[in-house]
Specification:
By secondary structure, this protein is mainly beta. Helix content is about 5%, strand content about 55%. It contains 8 helices and 51 strands. The protein has a 22-stranded antiparallel beta barrel. A hairpin with a 7-residue loop joins β38 and β39 (about 740). It is globular.
Length: about 900
């Protein structure tokens, strides 16, 4: 009996192998009739009457393995008519069955319209793209952003692994590396910065209404410009396809700190829509024609309004034009409470300033985007994008307390009012052309302009005496009005040709050459004038000198100027100096011409991309500033050869092992190389003409697994070695100004990242109720050399430093970063209605803000966490509601100086909770 059973098992095993070896294959490509036969990813392919099925991949391809026989194949996609096709399969034979799907008589507009266009907004689509791509990258789409209550790109990227945002600024840190090490593109083309202090544009000005998805590349590829070490953020704008739609959105929102202010006032002048303009008045040194210093009371309830729409039109037999447009306006009120601010603190912990800190702000964002896609035929496509964003922020910052030598009795009062306006206009033309089965040609060009104005920033210093406030004019700049304008134009071009080679037996090509060119041509003009208002007498206590801080117009006016109660001058002098009105200026131009060759080849399960890029860089800066009124100029030239290698090994159909290595560089920015003093509240920064580029070496090793279409588990190890790193440091000066220097010979960052997304529970067979979760964790270690002699030698002693330590961490590098979210999704009413509720948490550990000098410790931003709650519901085919509560924990944001004698609080405040109620209607 035992022998017979053994014989039976052997027979069955042999038969199973025989059957497996004789199986046939059904494969093909699904295309979408609604978009002129573009490929249709994520469609369903099922063998009728069986459980054998597959989904099409990102290229619309599918493959089924079946036993020989006659079958009926069902092709389906949500919102499209299903198609059944009979197929006969023979042993060891591959049958090709391509199919076109159409929406036919379906009228569910909200499904049909978006069926093909939404794909790259979906988490599952982007994960599949990530799995199949050779490059190492992460993406976050519109679907995930909506679920997590994200309204702008800045908050989108910090939801991904290893990325954080510096509190109180717009700086994004990728793996511990800040603004200078990162780059920003839109549809693969560079976009300029709207801030003279930053290399990258403020990502929070890009609302998620205009994006399809955001891609973050942390591993260098030769198609990027070489000024890359942390990562590249690519904003991919919406490329609409489908039938016509029109949608309107409304939102009402409040900040609990702002709404709790008894007297929310801001300086008169700017209007509520953020388009106000102000210029230097006529005869500013001899006539008082300046705007009012009085205040308006605001009701701090904010909101937003948006409208978007799109449609598609057939042109001839094969052509199609897709049009998409969106326009929106949003505003916000914010307030920082329980604030403490200290200026420079010495090694003994004694502060030069010990003040409370109050901050009120009102901001606006007006966005308009227009996109036209013209598909000429199946081989040729052209896209035009035009994006306009106008932003404004009006701030009032106030501090009261001790100021050394100005308010030794703790009776000082400093107030700064600032209105900042930026206008960005991006224009792009993109083309895709299939030259043959082997080759394609892609091109893109852009013309971008940005204009940033700080028109009439006011700064006043006063003392509180028993009788009231008096103006402190011990130094002329203690009371001033400041005007700044930045204009930047940029042309950019991308060209690339792909050529496939080495076709295998299945008809697929194993290799690909990509030859490309990138050009970037940027020029910037910057000018600033500060008018100093100096009273003619030192403050005394008699009532004739008493002023009303909320109505300084009673003192600063034409009559008191005529009576010589105060004088007006610039850094060049007063009315008697012929060129006193000449502004401080700097101008810069940057030219980069780069060419590259990438060679991709698939060795069975291993795919390799070997790249070599060459760039010629020229950066010129000219200036005439307070530090160098006579003016000067400097040229930085660099020729860079940048090799890169990316390897992808497919462990199985669900797991990949990836490796990346590259060399890149980091350029200093125009302002960093110009000797201009830029005043922040209680802090000043000075450029350094001796600054030069760093060289970077980058390494990545990543394992990833995709258990299901919307799940991923990945672990990454990375390292970066930087030669001659650039840092912000406090230089040796009486005012402890910050400058930029190549602070040492080397620095490095090493770390690990973990990402996990999973469907935790499904509550029914139709997947209408499910609980999903995600977590990503990043740990990193950074170290850099700090060398005073190097700085002294390379700056001719003009930027002296005395570092407290010989080594230190990179600024902005948090050892631990954490993002986690938990979502419950529920559908009902035949899937016409749904509700998604999400809890999202973000955490960063202590990180260095500035490097310590003169025996003082580092400035450190203390750890903080943020908890958000988001609920979004589609009530019907047309109506949607949303409730978002952000910063529920409302932690104290704190910066300390870590002296040997103990930590000294430098800055602290609370931001309050942000609550918003959202409503949308789709026609």
């Amino acid at each position: 009996m035992k022998f017979n059973l053994k014989f039976l098992f052997i027979t069955l095993f042999i038969c199973t192998i025989s059957v497996a070896q004789n199986k046939g294959t059904i494969s093909g490509v699904l295309t979408d009739k609604e978009t002129n036969n573009e490929v249709l990813p994520f469609a369903n392919v099922l063998v009728k009457g069986t459980k054998t099925s597959a989904n099409t991949d990102i290229d619309g391809k599918y493959s089924l393995s079946v036993n020989p026989g006659n079958y009926i194949i069902i092709f389906s996609f949500v919102g499209y008519e299903s198609v059944e096709k009979p197929v006969t399969v023979k042993a060891n034979e591959t049958i090709t069955v391509n199919q076109v799907l159409s929406s036919g008589s379906f009228t569910l507009k909200d499904v049909v319209v978006k069926a093909s266009a939404v794909n790259r907004q979906k988490e599952s689509a982007l994960l599949l793209d990530q799995k199949n791509a050779v490059d190492i990258k992460q993406s976050i789409g519109a679907q995930e952003l909506s679920k997590k209550g994200v309204s702008d790109v800045a908050n989108a990227v910090i939801k991904t692994t290893g990325i954080t945002k510096q509190e109180g600024t717009n700086n994004i840190f990728v793996r511990g590396l800040g603004d200078r090490y990162n780059s920003t593109t839109m549809n693969g083309l560079p976009i300029p910065s709207n801030d003279p202090e930053k290399k990258n544009i403020n990502l929070d000005i890009f609302s998620t209404d205009i994006i399809e998805y955001v891609s973050i590349d942390k591993v260098y590829n030769g198609k990027f410009f070489g000024d890359f070490a942390g990562g590249n953020v690519d904003i991919v704008s919406k490329d609409y396809k489908g039938n016509g739609f029109l949608k309107v959105d409304f939102e009402s929102k409040v900040n609990t700190n702002a709404i709790g202010e008894n007297n929310f006032t801001l300086q008169k002048g700017p209007n509520a829509f953020g388009f106000s303009k102000a210029a230097i008045p006529n005869n500013p040194l001899t006539e008082y024609n300046y705007s009012s210093l009085q205040f308006d009371k605001k009701t701090p309830i904010a909101g937003s309004f948006g409208i978007s729409g799109g449609d598609s039109y057939n042109v001839g037999e094969q052509g199609k034009i897709n049009i998409f447009g969106t326009a929106s306006f949003t505003n916000d009120y914010s307030s920082r409470t329980e604030g403490v601010a200290k200026g420079s603190v010495n090694a003994a912990g004694v502060a030069g300033k010990d003040l409370d800190y109050n901050y009120l702000a009102y901001s606006t964002n007006t966005t308009g985007m227009f996109n036209v896609g013209y598909k000429i035929n199946s081989k040729n496509k052209i896209n035009f994008n035009s994006l306009y964003i106008n932003t404004s922020t009006q701030r009032k910052e106030e501090s009261r307390g001790y100021i050394v030598d100005l308010a030794n009795e703790g009776n000082g009062y400093i107030r700064r009012n600032e209105y900042e306006k930026s206008a960005l206009w991006v224009n792009q033309l993109l083309g895709e052309h299939k030259l043959s089965d082997r080759s394609t040609f892609n091109w893109g060009g852009s013309f971008n302009t940005v204009k940033q104005d700080i028109p009439d920033r006011t700064y006043n210093t006063m003392n509180l005496l028993p009788e009231g406030y008096v103006i402190n004019s011990q130094s002329a700049p203690n009371n001033n009005r400041y005007f700044q304008t930045l204009k930047e134009n940029e042309l950019a071009a991308n060209l690339s040709v792909n050529y496939k080679f080495s076709k295998n037996e299945d008809g697929d090509y194993k290799g690909k050459f990509t030859v490309g060119y990138n050009g970037r041509f940027k020029n910037r003009d910057f000018e600033a004038t500060q008018f100093n208002f100096k009273t003619t007498t030192f403050p005394v206590s008699h009532t004739g000198d008493i002023v009303d801080p909320n109505n300084l117009d009673l003192f600063y006016n034409q009559q008191n100027l005529n009576n010589n109660f105060f004088t007006i001058s610039t850094f060049r002098g007063g009315p008697e100096v012929p060129n006193a009105l000449d502004p401080q200026t700097y101008s810069g131009d940057l030219t980069i011409n780069g060419g590259y060759l990438n060679t991709e080849y698939k060795f069975n399960k291993l795919t390799a991309v070997l790249g070599l890029r060459a760039e010629v860089i020229t950066q010129n800066v000219d200036w005439s500033t307070q530090l160098d009124p006579a003016g000067g100029s400097d040229k930085l030239e660099k020729t860079a050869f940048l090799p890169s290698l990316v390897l992808k090994y497919e462990l199985n159909e669900k797991q990949n092992l990836r490796f990346g290595f590259s060399k890149t560089y980091t350029l200093p920015q125009f302002k960093e190389r110009s000797p201009f003093i830029y005043e922040e509240f209680l802090q000043a920064k000075i450029g350094n003409p001796f600054l030069y580029a760093s060289d970077d070496y980058n390494f990545d090793l990543k394992w990833e697994m995709f258990p299901n279409s919307d799940e991923v588990l990945s672990v990454t190890g990375f390292g970066k070695y930087i030669l001659n790193p650039i840092n912000e440091v406090v230089i040796n000066s009486s005012t402890n100004d910050i400058s930029y220097v190549n602070s040492g010979d080397y620095g490095y960052v090493a770390g690990a990242e973990l990402e996990y997304k999973k469907t935790l529970f499904t509550f029914d067979s139709e997947n209408t109720k499910k609980l999903t979760g995600g977590i990503n964790v990043s740990y990193l270690y950074s170290k850099q050399e700090l060398d005073n002699e190097k700085v002294q030698k390379e700056t001719d002693g003009s930027r002296p430093t005395t570092f407290t330590n010989t080594t230190g961490k990179f600024t902005g590098a948090s050892p631990l970063l954490l993002n986690a979210d938990l979502s419950f999704y529920n559908e009902w009413n035949d899937k016409k209605s749904n509700l998604t509720t999400t809890i999202a948490y973000n955490y960063f550990s202590d990180r260095v803000n500035a490097i310590g000098t003169l025996q003082k410790g580092d400035l450190v931003d203390k750890a903080a966490g943020s908890l958000d709650f988001i609920a979004k519901s589609k009530l019907s085919k047309n109506y949607s509601l949303g409730l978002v509560v952000k910063n529920i924990l409302d932690p104290t944001i704190k910066r300390v100086q870590e002296n040997q004698s103990g930590d000294v609080d430098i800055l602290s405040y609370k931001k309050g909770l942000n609550l918003s109620l959202q409503f949308s209607y789709e026609f």
